[in-house]
Amino acid sequence: MQSLQPTTMEQVLTKRTTVLLVGALTLWRLYLSATLELHPDEAYYWLWSRQPDVAYFDHPPMVAWFIWLSTRHSDAELWVRLPGTLVALVVSGLIWQLALQLTRSVAVAAGSVLLFNVYPLTLMGLMVITPDIPVFLFWSLSLWLFWQLMRTGQTWLWYALGLSFGLALLSKYTAVLLAPCLFLYLLLSDERRWLKTVHPYLALLTGFAVFLPVVYWNSQHDWVSFAFQLNHGLGGAVRSLGPVMEYLAGQMLITGPVVWLLGMAAAVAALWRRDQATLWLLATSLPVIAFFGLSSLRTVAGPNWPAFAYVTFSILVARYCLEGDSRLRRGLWSLAFGLSLALSVVLTLHARFGLLPLHEFSPELAAADASNGFHGWRELGAELRKHPEAAFALAPSHQLSAQIIYYTGGRLPARPEPEARASQFDLWPGQLQGQDGLYVWTDEDSAGPYEEYFAATTPARTLRVLRNGAAVRTYHLVEGQRARLSTAPGDPAQHQLRLGLERAGKRSGPG
After folding, report:
1. CA 159 to chain centre
2. Is the pLDDT assigned to residue 5 strictly greater than 60?
3. Which residues, at least 6 apart from 294, have a Cβ–Cβ distance to it below 8 Å?
4. Of 56, 40, 146, nearest to 406 (Cα)?
5. Across the strands, what pairs with 395?
6. Among 16, 164, 379, 383, which is disulfide-ready with 142 (CB 3.0 to 4.6 Å)?
């Protein structure tokens, strides 16, 4: 890709261009939201929203509250996912303002927003409704408030920041990393004078006060949510560097390899820059990415875990490439933008239409296709609705149980079997004793001892769902009579909680 001349770049990277491209990507994201079936984790979070609470087994409550608000009139996939599209737009606006304030350059502001919107992390990731959606919003709002505070010195902004920080904590526990990032900046910058006042500490207390309902909920449930996430994110013994390399490869995938490498180059170049803006961009992005890289020594960190770090990372890259008169850097920005956009377009087209013929290369590769998670659930729901005599369904996982509930329109209650990983289902009451039901599993699951759950069972039947001629998933269904579960799966039994914590590092969980 040819690099653009500075005058041409400034003509292209304008507010009008940014609005048009972000608008087009937003329409594409809305189309994907409406036409792709819910991913298993999305169905699980949707189920939370049907029973609003101040905390849940796996995460704080904000994702459920967002879904509850967006599905007041419809539970269709578009409405379940709508918060992600809205948050992407709000965050884009905050990035624009921050970049403009930091650099006074429309080209850098446009470049920052455009990079952020073409990441696979954004185009695909902010379509899928997870706790990353609300944490993106409140992390970004907190950064914006903090920089307004640095610009104006108005002390009331500390307390608005504290409130926003608390809302970020209500979104995802890892938002706690915001506090050390901002304190690191204050410590290293000329703004350290604030550390001699009471305001930063009262703001921190304000944030934790907002978070107190989650603490209280955990105190009433054996601290299970905190224990689960600590084990999930930091449990396990120190391993080799292999998972760290896997984590770094994941970061390059969710942003685009050229963007990520440019960010690392910008970080190195920043060692020779002493300005406050660069220090702030580094302090609010790189420590988060590094933290999860280090945690990969103990557990395989999900690519999305440091996602919110890429808000200021985008500005860092755009500023590095677009400030000054370097034709090489401007050309690299164009290359980074083009490759990230191409990667996102290919991934989303494949998720929707099966663009890549993976089954022609390898059946194993096709079976491992992550986009399969967006297909095959409606067929399962249609099949299960053919069993009106069933009072419930059991499944090997909480995700499959949630999909059964969603795609049967709530007509068939479902629960994970007693051998499944512990989840929110263990904290919801349920009684199945003596009722007829179904046991459902897929080829990817480890089927439990379903014969023990019923007085009698029928032979297993299979339902094979195809996508472009290749198998997406094979379901297995068993009809059971007179359930004889001595402990209802809804009872929060301690052995279930221990089982879930032990298996957290072996099975992938939501978020």
Report:
1. 27
2. no
3. none
4. 40
5. 416
6. 164
C-beta atoms surrounding 279 within 10 Å: 18
Distance CA 110, CA 92 (A): 10
Q: Which amino acid is at 290?
A: A
Beta strands 470-483 and 461-467: pairing type?
antiparallel
370 is written with which tokens?
């992550």
Does the global pTM surpass 0.90?
yes
Residue with tokens 């500490």: 201
Predicted pLDDT at 508 = 37
Instruction: Please choose, from the candidates 239, 236, 157, the residue with its C-alpha nearest in 3D space to the C-alpha of residue 200.
Output: 157
Tell which residue, 396, 391, 257, 277, has the closest CA to residue 335: 257
3-class DSSP state of 189? coil
Q: Which two tokens stand for residue 392?
A: 């419930």
- pLDDT for position 491: 42
Token output for 178: 């915001």
- The pLDDT tens digits for 422-471 are 999 999 877 888 999 999 999 989 898 999 999 999 999 999 999 888 88
**Coil, strand or helix at 414:** strand
Q: In the block, which residue shows the tokens 């970049």?
A: 99
Do residues 104 and 322 lie in contact, with contact meaning Cβ atoms separated by under 8 Å? no
Mean pLDDT of the chain: 90
Find all residues with CB under 8 Å of 16, minimum gap 6, and list them: none
Coil, strand or helix: which one is 487? coil
Longest dimension (CA), the chain: 78
Q: Is 503's pLDDT higher than 60?
A: no
Q: 156-181, pLDDT tens digit by residue?
A: 999 999 999 999 999 999 999 999 99
CA atoms within 13 A on the CB side of 226: 13
> What pLDDT, in 10s, does the model give residues 229-264?
887 666 655 566 888 899 999 999 999 999 999 999
CA gap 53, 33 in Å, rounded: 25
3-class DSSP assignment, residue 120: helix
Q: What is the dihedral of CA 286, 288, 289, 295, to 10 degrees?
A: 140
Q: How far is CA 345 from the centre of its chain?
A: 19
Please provide the DSSP assignment of 208-247 as one string. HHHHHHHHHHHHTTTTHHHHHHHHHHH-S----SHHHHHH
Phi, psi (degrees; rounded to nearest 5) at 64? -70, -40
* Cα separation, 459 vs 10, whole angstroms: 68
Q: What is the pLDDT of residues 85-123, one digit of tens each?
A: 999 999 999 999 999 999 999 999 999 999 999 999 999
* Cα–Cα dist 376/359, whole Å: 16
